[in-house]
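User: I'm writing a tutorial on reading structure tokens. Could you give me a worked example: one chain, its sequence, then its tokens, then a sentence or two explaining what the tokens reveal?
Assistant: Sure. Here is the example chain.
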Amino acid sequence: MGWDNLQHKYRLGREWFESSPEEKDLEVLVDEKFSVTWQCVLTAQKASRILGCINSSMTSRSREVILPLCSTLVRAHLESCVQLWSPQHRKYMDLLEQVQRRATKMILGLEYLSCEARLRDLGQSSLEKRRLWGYLIAAFQYLKRAYKKAGDGLFARACSDRTRGDGFKMKEGRFELDIRKKFIMMSVVRHWIRLPREVMDAPSVAVFKARLDEALSNLIYWKVSLPMARGLELGDL
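And here are its predicted structure tokens:
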């Protein structure tokens, strides 16, 4: 790994390990360039096969039947260990979203609605928004609560007397490699600084979740919220 990698070889006893262009660990497939492209493709394929089984084996199309099955069996694969392989490009984000779109379209009475309307009617949100929701909660824990000590080495803070909350805000780093910008701990920064003050100043994780839910309650897809300016109040959403 890295520019100065000497590609050392390793052995176990007298047996030398062979190099591999990709490796799977904890069911996450990563290649030698730290790309998760194939992980996204394989995840979408596996979730689609499970969705196909549900579609062929269930005669009922009511939301009481389809929604719990898809949430438990399909979405579980789409979100398993997603913190390690979060899709980095829109192409693969859409690939995962397509599976959820197919699932919601199976529900009787919703098949002719748009995807946004179906999700809103079901009280669901996009996978992209759900991922970000989890990332922001993790960031809150690392910055202020349970893992605050570890957070000092994960996030870059911009200290200033004019910053909000507890006197600091996170700042985006500058990196030569594009892949570094897409790491979760880096990409979550630009979303964190857009949160309303009341959300960041929450006294506990439970309160943070409730305020975050309220701030994002009208958003199905997170990209809708990108114009949300720094300092926007909850009443403006």
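What the tokens reveal: The two ends are 44 Å apart (CA to CA). The chain has twelve helices and six strands.
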